[in-house]
């Protein structure tokens, strides 16, 4: 929610134990919120960064201030391409304008971006619903359609609706019986803490499983499809998403389970043609060394999980090659995970081919 003085976000580090809003009124507030993952999810990071740039221009609309604000925002999370996309959009809107007009134009641009994200996610929900309905008609019996997802790609990760969860919400609301297997998604537990919380709030049947249970469920025929989001997708259909996604795609391919990726156009990086080119964020090892939970007395505490002297590597994302992706779901339709498939939906990008 945005007003004349700032924006309000859901402080996601407090979930699922506390739902609280946090107010951001300066560029530094926005940078801190993105770095600490109070705000997370590629689409939401982009929109929040756009508002952060607008807030910075309210204090100083000069060219040097624009450059400094952009640099600060782009350093926060290197993998999600929505961040650069949003910053570039705002910069393009204000460059060349008189300084006194820049802050208001940036604010308007960020608001337009937020509205567009809602519509984009709604459309992804409709496109993905058609896929789920098709899968349901191909199955016999009355059992729910069983969908496995990884990380959180719901409304918490966007302005509203979400990407990978949008088709699930649409399916549930339309009366199509679904059951969601929710990967816990270590080390930040975005599945267990955020996706499970979201689905519970919406009344969608689900169960949290450990990250390594997905292959077992697929072998037993208990997964009808995988549906995940993306932080960056190349022009050739390679998909970067939360660490562990690649392993799910491998298990899905081995067991003949469709593996779908919900990708808004703002998450497609048309400059890249190979997943190896995507920068993979490596976060602080403290996220792996400890976990926050609720103690029997009700207070939230941080608990150590391993020997203090054990080295830790904390890779935040991995890349799933397009050959393992059954289809990409965008706001414009569903396509193969390939250069040809994406250009068919986005013909204006053919020049990048």
- Name the helix and strand elements from N-terminus to C-terminus, one letter apiece: EEEHHHHHEHEHEHEEEHEEHEEEEEH
Q: Which assembly state applies to the chains in this document?
A: single chain
Percentage of residues in DSSP E strands:
15-25%
Give me the Rg, rounded.
20 Å
Distance between the first and last residues' Cα: 38 Å
Low-confidence segments: none
Structural class, from helix and strand content? Answer: alpha/beta
Overall CATH architecture of the largest domain: 3-Layer(aba) Sandwich
Largest sheet: 7 strands, mixed
Helix content: 40-55%
Look up the CATH topology of the largest domain.
Rossmann fold
**CATH top-level class of the largest domain:** Alpha Beta
Write out the CATH superfamily name of the largest domain. Translation initiation factor eif-2b, domain 2
What does this structure look like?
By secondary structure, the protein is of the alpha/beta class. The protein folds into two domains: 2-116, translation initiation factor eif-2b, domain 1 (Four Helix Bundle (Hemerythrin (Met), subunit A), Up-down Bundle); 125-352, Translation initiation factor eif-2b, domain 2 (Rossmann fold), CATH 3.40.50.10470. It has helices at residues 27-35, 42-59, 63-74, 81-94, 99-138, 166-174, 190-202, 214-219, 245-255, 286-289, 339-345; strands at residues 2-3, 6-10, 21-24, 145-149, 178-183, 206-209, 225-228, 232-234, 239-242, 259-262, 268-269, 290-294, 300-304, 317-320, 327-330, 333-335. Strands 6-5-4-7-10-15-16 form a seven-stranded mixed sheet, with helices on both faces. A four-stranded mixed sheet has the order 11-8-9-14, covered by helices on one side. A hairpin with a 2-residue loop joins strand 15 and strand 16. The longest helix has 40 residues, at 99-138. It is globular and about 65 Å long. The model has no long low-confidence stretch (mean pLDDT 95).
């Amino acid at each position: 929610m945005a007003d004349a003085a700032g924006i309000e976000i859901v402080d996601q580090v407090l979930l699922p134990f506390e739902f609280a809003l946090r107010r951001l009124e300066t560029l530094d507030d926005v940078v801190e919120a993105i770095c600490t993952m109070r705000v997370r999810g590629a689409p939401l990071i982009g929109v929040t960064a756009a508002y952060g740039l607008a807030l910075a221009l309210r204090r100083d609309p000069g060219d040097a201030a624009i450059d400094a604000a952009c640099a600060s925002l782009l350093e926060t999370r290197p993998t999600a391409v929505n961040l650069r996309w949003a910053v570039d959009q705002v910069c393009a809107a204000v460059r060349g304008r008189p300084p006194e007009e820049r802050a208001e134009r940036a604010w308007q641009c960020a608001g337009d971006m937020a509205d567009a994200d809602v519509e984009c996610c709604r459309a992804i929900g409709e496109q993905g619903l058609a896929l789920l309905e098709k899968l349901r008609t191909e199955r016999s019996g009355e059992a729910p359609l069983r969908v496995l997802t990884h990380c959180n790609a719901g409304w918490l990760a966007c302005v509203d609706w979400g990407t990978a969860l949008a088709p699930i919400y649409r399916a549930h609301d339309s009366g199509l019986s679904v059951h969601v297997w929710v990967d816990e998604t270590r080390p930040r537990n975005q599945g267990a803490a955020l996706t499970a919380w979201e689905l519970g709030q919406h009344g969608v049947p689900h169960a949290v499983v450990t990250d390594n249970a997905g292959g077992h469920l697929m072998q037993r025929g208990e997964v009808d499809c995988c549906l995940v989001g993306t932080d960056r997708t190349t022009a050739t259909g390679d998909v970067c998403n939360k660490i562990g996604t690649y392993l799910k795609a491998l298990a899905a391919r081995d067991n003949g389970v469709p593996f779908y990726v919900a990708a808004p156009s703002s998450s497609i990086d048309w400059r890249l043609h190979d997943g190896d080119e995507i920068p993979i964020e490596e976060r602080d090892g403290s996220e792996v060394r400890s976990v926050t939970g609720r103690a029997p007395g009700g207070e939230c505490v941080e608990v150590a999980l391993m020997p203090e002297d054990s080295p830790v590597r904390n890779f935040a994302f991995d890349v799933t090659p397009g050959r393992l992706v059954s289809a990409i779901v965008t706001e414009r339709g569903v396509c193969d995970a390939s250069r040809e498939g994406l250009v068919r939906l986005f013909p204006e990008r053919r020049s990048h081919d």
